[in-house]
Every structure is written in C-alpha cells, then in structure tokens.
C-alpha cells in the first residue's frame, strides 16, 4: 500500500528562506550567539538570509537591531512604560535603550494601566454631577432638572457590574427649610470599599456611624476624606470624588471608566442627554418627578413628591431678584463671573437663582446659588473676582482665618501639613487659615497645638476615645507630644458600651417606663397594660430601701376624652431635690417650678437638676440617673438608673426584672387586678375623678384590620418603611397593637395615628437608631415657629442662647423644631444671637422679661437688657396690691381678679384660661357655687349672631343697654340707679357699671365686651364660663358637675341658663356648625347697618337673616356655606405667629407694654386673630378686640389711650 502526502510550499517572510533542516536556535538581536550553543535537533523552518538577524520576528540588518532593557527586547522605535508609570523610555536603535521622559501620575492626571496589552498612562475622561439649591440637579451628561422630594435618594451607583470596576453608591437626603415648595440637601452618604462615610448639615463627618475629625484615611489609603475650601471632599483611588459644602451643594465626579455603567439621579453617563430619565426599574419616564421618586432609597413609606406646579414669581419679585445686587450678578458681562460665562451656562444658573429666591424669599438662597456657581467655575480652573461683598453674602470666618477668593483646595492640616505643596486641584473660595496655622478638626491652630494621628484618624489634643468596640481600651491624645497612649479599662457596673451621637462611650444602663396614647403603660420590667383612669397618679417614686439614694416622685394627670372612654396624659409633675416641677400642655418653652413660671433651660442644685427642651420633648434631668421626657401632649417616659433596681414603686412597677410582680399597691400588697393596682396609686385622695373602665366595660376595636395596613399603623413594621432600621433592635408588635387600638377608637383620626408613630420613633431614637424622615408637610407635619425648622435627628444642645449645665452629648438625637442658622433658642422663640437674654441665679430671662426678687426689707424688680445685663430696681407694691404668686408669676398683684367676655365671644377666665364659644343662648358667666357665707351673685349673658352665623356677640348681660336704659329687677330704669344698699348702677364713659360693695364690679359696653372684677375673698368659690378662680387655669373648663369639658363647645353648652328675651327663647339654640339661624330684624338701624336692614325689610328672599343688638345683615344660602368654610380656617395662631393688625397687643415697645405684667396679652392676641379671621380685616372688629384688652388694663390701673391712634380706632366707640 502506498500513501501520498501533499504539503503546500512554505512561504517565508522577506529576507529569509526555507530550510528543511535549519537550526532550532536562530541568531537574534537579543541573543546573537545562540546557534553556537544550540543542543537541539534541526527543524524545518525559515532562516534569515546571510547578513540578517531576527528582530522581534523580522529579519533585519544587524545595524538595525533594537534594544535590550530590564531583561526584555524592544525593536527600534518601541516605547515602554515602567510598572509604576514613573518612566517612559524609547529604543532609538543601535542596541542601546535611551531614557526618553519622566512623568508623575499627578502631572499626567492619568491612570497607570494595561490596555490592549500595553501598559501606559491613559488619560481619564471625568464627568461631574451636581445638586444645589432647592435642589437643582445636573447629570453627568449635562441635563439639568429640578426635583424637590424630601426622602433619601440614590444619586449615583454602579448598576452594570464589571470585573474591573469597583462598586459604590452615593445617596442624598433632602429636607424642607421653611418653604414647603422646595427642599435642600441635608445629608450625603457614600458607600465604597465596605465603608459608609456620612456628611450631615451642621455636623462633622462620620464613618460607619462613628464621628471622625477630618482628614481621615480609610481602606489602606484608598479612601481619603478632607477639608477643601468650605466643603468636605471624599476621594478614592478609583477616581470617585464626592464633595459637600455642609449646607446644600453636592457634587459627584467619576472617571470615564464608569461610562455607561451608572444609574441614579445623576443619570447613566453614556454621553446621551435624551435617555437620562430612566427609572430604577429600567423604564423611561416622562417627568423629573417620576424619575426622582423612582430613585427613593430605603424607605418605601416616605411619601412620593407630587406633581405640583412650581412656585411662580410675581413681576415685582422677578424684577428685584434679577438685579445685579441679586441673581443678576451671574449674567453681568462685567461682573465677578464674567470670565466664566463663556464656559459655564450662566443663564440656567441665573434662572435657578431667581426660582430659589421666589420660593424662599431668604437671602441665604441667593448666597447659596451664587456660591454653587462660583465653585463650578473654579472647579474648571476659571478665575472669578470677589462677589460676596457686592451681594451681601459676606462669609464669617473663624478665629485665625480669613476669606480668600482663590485659596488652596488642599489646605494644610495637622495630619497633612504639606498638603498644599502637592495639590493638583484648582483653587477655591472660602476661609483659609492664616500663615503659621493649620487645620485641626476644622479649627485653625498653630502647629504646636496639633493633636495626634492614630490608625489613620486624627485626634485633637486631650481627646479621649475607646479604641475597640467593647470599650476595653481607653486612649487619649497627649497634648503637645503628638502621641496616643492607651490603657486597659472598662465601663463601670450598670453601664453599657454604645455608640451614641457618633461616639463610642459608656452610658448609664437604665430602664425606661412609658405612658403614651390612651394611655398604654410599659413598666421598667417590660410589663404592658392599658389603664384609662382620669385622675392624678404616681407614675414612679423611690421606695423600699431607697433611703440612701436621692428621693423623687413623678406624677401624671390623665384627662378623659369624652365619648371614647380613654384618657391622655396632660400634665406631669416631678418632685426632686426639694422642687416641684410641673410640665403641662401650655408650658412650651417654660416650666412651672414651685408655682412660678421659668424660661427654659432652668437648673438648680449646681447643675444636678436641669429642665430643658430638645425637639418635641421637655426633659427633666438629674445627676443621679433620673430623666423624664414629656411631649406636652400625650407621651411621657421615665429613664432611671439601675441603682434603683428593686427600689421603686408606682405605675412603673418595682424595677426588679420580673414583670409578673409589678402590680404592687402602696401598702406592699401584690394584686392580680389591673384596675385595683392602678387606682391604688391615685396621688390625691380628695380629687374628684373616675378611674375609667375595667374588664369587659372597656371599648374594643371591632375592625383592627382596617388600621393595621401600611396606610395607617402598618408603617411601624413595614420592612422598607422609615422605621426599618429599628425593627432588629425593638419589637414593633406592641407598638403596632397600641396604634391600631387608639386609631380604631378614634375612627381613623390622623392626629392619633401620628401620636402613635411618634411614640415608636421616640423609642427607636432612645436606642440610638438612625431613622429615615417619616413626617412631611401632608403627613404628621410639625408646624415650627418662626426662624426654625424640623429635623428628624437634631442635636439637643445646639443653637441655644444658654448652654445646658449638664452634658447631653451622650444622649441620642431628637426629632422636632430646631433654630435656623444664625438664630438661637430663647424661651420658646428662635431669636438672632444678638437678642439673647440674661442668666441670673440659674434663671434664664428673655430680653422682654421682668421678674421680682423678695429681700428682707424690700422687693426688687429685675429686667434683662442688651448685652446680658440684669438691672435691679427696688420697688414697693402699690396700694391695693399684695406681693405673691398668681398664675405662676411672682409680683405685685391686685387683690382682685377679672374675667373678660368679648368679641365673638371669647371668655378670659379669672385664672387666665381662654375659651372660644359662639352659642346664641343665655349662659351663666359666673356665680357663687361653693360657699354659703359670702354674698351670693350670678351673672349671665345672652348672645346673638351679628353678621356672621358662625360667631356670636353679647346681646344682653346683667345690664342690657340700648342707649342709657337698663333693667333692674326686670324693670327698665334710668341711670344712675341705686337699687339697694351698697349696689349702684352707673354710666361711666359710655359703659354701664354695676358696683356691689368692694367685692364685685361688672362693666358692659352695650356692644361686645363684659368685664367682671371680683375680690380675692371669692377665690375657689365660683363656677361658670369664667372658671373657678382658684389660681390654676388648667382646671377652669369644668362642667356644672365638676368634670372637665371635652372642648369649648361642650363647656359653653353645659352652662346654658334659663331665661333670655322672649324672641331669643324660640330661636335660641346651642352652637351648630351646619345650620343658619333665622332671626327676624326687629331693631332700629344704626349708622353701621342701615342699608342692610332696609334691604332685609323690603325683599322676601332675604328672610334668612342674622341679627344682634346693634347690627343686622342678610345671608343667602351661598353666604352660609362660605361662612362655614371660613370658620374651619379660623383657629388659634401657631407659636411665633405675626398679625399686621393684632400685633399692637403684644408689641414691646408698644402702647400696652406696661400692662403686660398684670394682664397677659397672649390670649387677647389669639382672640383678635380669631375674630379678624372670621370677619376679615374689619376695622370695627379689630377695634373691639383691642379695646377689650384696653378695658382689662384699665381695671388694673393702666389707662392706655395711644392705642386708638396706633390702630386707627379713633372714630369707633368700643
């Protein structure tokens, strides 16, 4: 057999030939002698022609050989880059390598990497995304859009994983600041290399929840966080750069290697602006709102931003804000940004600036908008000139620093003193340390005062910290040495190692007792029960062997909610260190101590006892481990150190770790009945009250499933809700159960739901759990007073006029209202720092405060003046006055008290309580009810509508006066009259005055105001709408049977009296919000209503008429509906409210300033606002409201006449 094999002819490259048995070790430029030492058998191959030699696979003449360098061969013209890209070399031929150039990575601004098999410094294309102002976003690809959501959102993250790309995520959390139409960036979080770096407005940076001084280095140097101008900057080795100015402006810069791999609000970075609005689900959406809402992160229950029209500027606003003193500076061709306008789109920045100013109206918005544009310009290396002075945006720099329009963006610090020398980023405006100073945790200090660098973290001199998570190694940075010394240590007994407010520390290990909602109780030992008693109870007190510990007592008073068989905590008393501290619903910004009101914060016992407000709660804190918090509405908690374990009693139990034996009565008996246990702790055995339902008589929720969903209470346990971070730390089931019960009984009432959610939020924050924002403007919103804003996690001891004597840094953050930047908390108001008050003997005084001190021989009146100076003036009480405490205030008080009924009407009780009631019957205003020895009297008023069916005015009092005629004993008489010994009826300045000896005086102006003046001998003996005259305004709203009224309408109707005019008997009814009264006009017209009256008489269709003593007008059904709608809008003004007409009452200086001490103007101001709301800006209504306060002042001896000029009330007799 024969086999034939056909092989194609071998084609050899140029300058070579085929050999059937050629050398296996051909000569090459790198190894020219290899053939001489080759031990391999010959091979069939192509061999170089004579005179040629191999060079990288080609046959070349010997003189064209390349180079051998670092063990490798390179052909002529080849370039090489060393492993670190520190050298670039080329081969010129002739067999020798030549050094071509030397570049550092910083100079090249590139990346040392192997691409397509070649190592080189590859130029990186970067892109930047930004969010500024309200916020305005600009994606990596350059698309601008606005989105005002107030949740946490993904700004940018890696969405297309790749082996050569490092994953990261940047999220932002936005918040409202005053305006409800826009929001600002509050917090930035960066997750990279397993670390979470957080930068929050008004705080320091933190890493994994632990606060850090900047600069800080993490991940073996792959993460660096440092100061840069006015911002904090995070940089990584992968080219990610995130900056935040601690206020509103955040930027994210990424290298081109991430192109097409990102997602979030910053877009996909693919160079195409038409496909930016891709939602988190991958779908294209049509609007910025839909796009923004889709990138909500980690809190599904946070409400989505609705599609609402943007705030619009008026023509006047736009003209003002477009001027060069405002946003016009951005587009001014000769202005501070002139060199940037050709490279940066200044027109869009200008429009954003105008938008922000129109939305907020604050100068801060202007400075933020201009500052963001300035930083963008400088980030591109474009110079700007000083813009702050011309726009009123001056920057206040700290000690040892000054403002520079172009300062280094890499400032020298204690841990990096030579940083500016190797800074490769453009300059930035901001505060720079003076020569000879460096940054130390944000402060400029001499290098000799620097601290220590320990494990990549900077520590300030003297700073102590726990090095480990278990608090076993305590370290301190030794001042002056730069060394950190650590020693073995541990927390003390009854202390726990925890991270609180970003710092690891030993905190007292305490137990907490809570009363919240209807109320639901949880004892120190964790036993839960519901008790609806409506008395005053001992919540907790020291007992059983606690004689060696400080004694204390905490009592709560529960108020029944009529119709619901439940109660709410409405007053808390703490007795400790010899003081009684009373917290009540009307004590916002102040507290009653030993019967006297005091501004917060208040302290005694050398700081061992402090009362302060933090967010929504007022706190009473002691130095022995007792702290009480009360939100002044429904929720009270007591935290108590474990030193008291087993030594307490009361509704909070015995604190012995055993829930089963908590039901112990005051005599030490363990009972099984909840009702018997709870009722036994009634604090005042003489108090007339009920202990609520028990057993089967208590109401039950018939449809709990209705309120357990995520639209109601289910938000508590929602896995992706705002409380998700708390679910692993705190069992939500009991809170969910309590919430469902309360909301169910309240028939879905939104306020009740918010109270239940707040109780759970408070418990979570007590465990130092960081919560996502769960409130917004339309859901459980908090109405903050002027110059303040809401924060879900605010620091307790910032922005106060006076610092707290006790350290609160170990306490968790709190939610609530906090003063805006530049303002400080003074009592219940946020004021400019320059308007802070004074501290005298531990008592804080606002600038408007005056108070009395009792000396052995005289009394001193003290006032707080500018500069914190307290001025004392010796004074004596006037004749007819006595020195004492009345309504929580010490001073010279008249030996009588007054009640005022005025306006629509409003009732100002003897003790200072305010009641709004618009019933149109006859009512008992005041009478002697509880004493048979004092001269008896009874005063009633008959009220009727007057022009508005939803309010009423006094038609007839004890004296009814059409002109100068009154009735005594039912018969009309001419005045003056003296019906019996000691009783006189007079006309004085147009007012009927009834004088009954020295004990009672009644004044009625015949139109809208009735004043009662009674002597102190009647204290505690009266009843009616004017209250009981016992010095306590909290219990003035009592029904005839002595029980508290559920609301003002309930109170007023209960005091309806028999009698009244024959006409009003048939038409009189209790106040009703849905019906319009049909009362015919039967009275002569006055100069105010003549036309309206004639209209009523001549047209039958106007028979639906409302009449009162001196006014008559007509009301159609349409007007009736309008009045009902307006009535629902007329409520008491919020704290800090300003009214252009009623402000005259509270103005200081003002016409009534001298009267404020004797007659508190706040309730009169509230009534004035209410009346002007109901009647519009009617001048007569205003004059009557202000005139009522003037009359009350007159009864105290203050004759004020200038108020008529100030209010333009000269022509009205009120």
UniProtKB/TrEMBL annotation:
**Span of the signal peptide:** none
The highest taxon in the source lineage is Eukaryota
Task: Give the UniProt keywords, A-Z.
Answer: Disulfide bond, Glycoprotein, Repeat
Pfam families tied to this protein: C8 (PF08742), TIL (PF01826), TILa (PF12714), VWD (PF00094)
Q: Which CDD domains match?
A: TIL
Q: Does the keyword Glycoprotein apply?
A: yes
Q: Listed GO cellular component terms?
A: extracellular matrix; extracellular space
Q: Which InterPro entries does the record associate with it?
A: Mucin_vWF_Thrombospondin_sf, Ser_inhib-like_sf, TIL_dom, TILa_dom, VWF/SSPO/ZAN-like_Cys-rich_dom, VWF_dom, VWF_type-D
TM helices/strands, residue ranges: none
Q: Which residue ranges does the record annotate as region Disordered?
A: 1037-1061
Which residue ranges does the record assign to the VWFD domain? 127-303, 511-690, 897-1063
Under which name does UniProt file this protein?
VWFD domain-containing protein
Origin species: Callorhinchus milii
């Amino acid at each position: 057999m024969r086999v034939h094999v056909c092989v194609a002819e071998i084609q050899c490259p140029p300058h070579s030939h085929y050999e059937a048995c050629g050398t296996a070790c051909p000569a090459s430029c790198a190894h020219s002698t290899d053939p001489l030492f080759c031990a391999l058998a010959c091979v069939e191959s192509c061999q170089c022609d004579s005179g040629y030699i191999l060079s990288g696979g080609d046959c070349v003449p010997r003189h064209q050989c390349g180079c051998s360098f670092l063990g490798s061969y390179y052909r002529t013209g080849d370039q090489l880059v060393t492993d670190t890209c520190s050298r670039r070399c080329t081969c010129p031929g002739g067999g020798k390598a030549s050094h071509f150039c030397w570049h550092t990575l910083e100079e090249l601004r590139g990346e040392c990497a192997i691409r397509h098999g070649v190592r080189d410094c590859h130029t990186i294309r970067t892109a930047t995304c930004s969010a500024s102002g309200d916020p305005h976003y600009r994606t990596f690809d350059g698309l601008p859009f606005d989105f005002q959501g107030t949740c946490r959102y993904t700004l940018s993250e890696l969405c297309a994983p790749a082996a050569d790309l490092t994953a990261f995520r940047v999220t932002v959390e936005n918040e409202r600041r005053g305006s409800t139409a826009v929001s600002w960036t509050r917090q930035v979080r960066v997750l990279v290399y397993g670390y979470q770096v957080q930068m929050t407005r008004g705080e320091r940076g933190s890493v994994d929840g632990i606060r850090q001084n900047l600069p800080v280095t993490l991940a073996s140097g792959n993460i660096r966080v440092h100061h840069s101008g006015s911002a904090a900057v995070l940089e990584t080795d992968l080219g990610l750069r995130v900056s935040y100015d601690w206020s509103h402006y955040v930027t994210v810069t990424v290298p081109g290697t991430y192109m097409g791999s990102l997602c979030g609000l910053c877009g996909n970075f693919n160079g195409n602006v038409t496909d930016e609005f891709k939602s988190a689900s991958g779908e294209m959406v049509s609007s910025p709102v839909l796009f923004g809402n889709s990138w909500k992160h980690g809190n599904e229950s946070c409400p989505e931003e609705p599609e609402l029209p943007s705030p619009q500027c008026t023509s006047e606003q736009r003209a003002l804000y477009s001027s060069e003193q405002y946003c016009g500076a951005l587009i001014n061709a000769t202005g501070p940004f002139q060199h940037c306008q050709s490279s940066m789109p200044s027109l869009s920045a200008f429009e954003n600036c105008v938008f922000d100013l129109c939305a907020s109206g604050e100068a801060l918005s202007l400075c933020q908008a201009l500052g963001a544009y300035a930083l963008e310009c400088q980030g591109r290396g474009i110079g700007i000139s000083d813009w702050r002075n011309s726009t009123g945006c001056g920057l206040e720099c700290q000690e040892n620093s000054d403002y520079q329009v172009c300062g280094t963006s890499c400032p020298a610090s204690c841990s990096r003193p030579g940083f500016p020398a190797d800074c490769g980023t453009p300059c930035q405006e901001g505060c720079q340390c003076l020569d000879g100073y460096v940054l130390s945790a944000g402060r400029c200090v001499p290098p000799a005062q620097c601290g220590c660098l320990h494990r990549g973290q900077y520590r300030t001199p003297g700073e102590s910290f726990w090095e480990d998570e278990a608090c076993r190694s305590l370290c301190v940075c030794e001042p002056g040495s730069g060394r950190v010394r650590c020693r073995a240590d541990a927390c003390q007994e009854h202390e726990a190692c925890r991270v609180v407010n970003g710092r690891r520390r030993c905190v007292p290990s305490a137990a907490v007792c809570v009363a919240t909602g209807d109320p639901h109780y949880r004892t120190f030992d964790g036993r839960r029960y519901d008790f609806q008693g409506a008395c005053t109870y001992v919540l907790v007190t020291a007992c059983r062997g606690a004689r060696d510990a400080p004694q204390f007592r905490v009592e709560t008073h529960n108020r029944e909610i009529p119709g619901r068989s439940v109660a709410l905590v409405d007053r808390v008393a703490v007795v400790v260190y010899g003081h009684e501290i009373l917290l009540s619903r009307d004590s916002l910004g102040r507290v009653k101590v030993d019967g006297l009101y005091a501004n917060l914060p208040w302290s005694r016992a050398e700081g061992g006892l402090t009362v302060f407000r933090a967010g929504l709660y007022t706190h009473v804190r002691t130095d022995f481990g007792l702290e009480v918090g009360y939100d002044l509405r429904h929720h009270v908690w007591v935290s108590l150190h474990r030193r008291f374990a087993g030594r307490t009693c009361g509704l909070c139990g015995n604190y012995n770790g055993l829930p089963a034996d908590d039901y112990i009565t005051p005599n030490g008996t363990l009972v099984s009945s909840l009702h018997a246990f709870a009722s036994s702790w009634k604090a005042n055995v003489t108090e007339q009250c009920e202990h609520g339902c028990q057993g089967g008589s208590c109401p039950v929720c018939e449809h709990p499933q209705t309120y357990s969903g995520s639209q109601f209470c289910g938000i508590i346990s929602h896995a992706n809700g705002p409380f998700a971070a708390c679910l692993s730390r705190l069992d939500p089931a009991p809170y969910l159960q309590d919430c469902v019960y309360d909301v169910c009984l309240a028939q879905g009432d939104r306020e009740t739901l918010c109270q239940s959610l707040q109780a759970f939020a408070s418990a979570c924050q007590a465990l130092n759990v960081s919560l996502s924002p769960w409130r917004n403007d339309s859901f459980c919103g908090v109405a903050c007073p002027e110059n303040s804003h809401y924060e879900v996690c605010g620091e307790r001891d910032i922005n106060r006029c006076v610092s707290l004597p006790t350290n609160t840094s170990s306490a968790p953050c709190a939610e609530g209202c906090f003063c805006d930047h530049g303002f400080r908390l003074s009592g219940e108001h946020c004021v400019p720092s320059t308007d802070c008050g004074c501290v005298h003997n531990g008592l804080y005084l606002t600038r408007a405060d005056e108070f009395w001190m009792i000396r052995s021989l005289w009394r001193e009146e003290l006032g707080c003046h500018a500069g914190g100076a307290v001025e004392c003036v010796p004074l004596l009480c006037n004749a007819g006055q006595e020195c004492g405490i009345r309504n929580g205030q010490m001073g010279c008080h008249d030996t009588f008290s007054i009640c005022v009924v005025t306006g629509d009407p409003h009732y100002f009780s003897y003790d200072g309580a305010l009641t709004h009631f618009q019933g149109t019957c006859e009512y008992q205003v005041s009478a002697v009810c509880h004493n048979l020895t004092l001269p008896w009297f009874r005063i009633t008023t008959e009220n009727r509508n007057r022009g508005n069916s939803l309010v009423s005015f006094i038609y007839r009092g004890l004296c009814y006066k059409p002109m100068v005629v009154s009735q005594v004993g039912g018969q009309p008489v001419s005045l003056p009259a003296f019906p019996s010994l000691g009783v006189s009826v007079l006309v004085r300045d147009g007012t009927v005055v009834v004088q009954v000896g020295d004990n009672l005086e009644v004044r009625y102006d015949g139109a809208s105001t009735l004043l009662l003046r009674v002597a102190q001998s009647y204290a505690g003996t009266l009843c009616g709408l004017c209250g009981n005259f016992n010095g306590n305004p909290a219990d003035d709203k009592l029904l005839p049977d002595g029980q508290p009224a559920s609301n003002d309408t309930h109170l007023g109707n209960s005091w309806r009296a028999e009698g009244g005019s024959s006409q009003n008997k048939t038409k009189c009814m209790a106040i009703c919000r849905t019906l319009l009264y049909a009362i015919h006009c039967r009275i002569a017209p006055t100069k105010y209503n003549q036309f309206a009256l004639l209209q009523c008489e001549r047209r039958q269709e106007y028979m639906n008429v409302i009449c009162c003593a001196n006014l008559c007008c007509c009301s159609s059904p349409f007007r009736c509906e309008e009045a009902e709608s307006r009535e629902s809008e007329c409520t008491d003004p919020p704290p800090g409210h300003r009214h252009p007409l009623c402000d005259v009452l509270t103005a200081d200086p003002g016409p009534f300033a001298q009267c404020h001490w004797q007659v508190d103007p706040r309730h009169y101001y509230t009534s004035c606002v209410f009346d002007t709301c109901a009647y519009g800006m009617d001048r007569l209504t205003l004059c009557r409201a202000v005139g009522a306060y003037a009359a009350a002042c007159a009864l105290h001896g203050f004759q004020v006449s200038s108020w008529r000029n100030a209010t333009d009330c000269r022509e009205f007799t009120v």
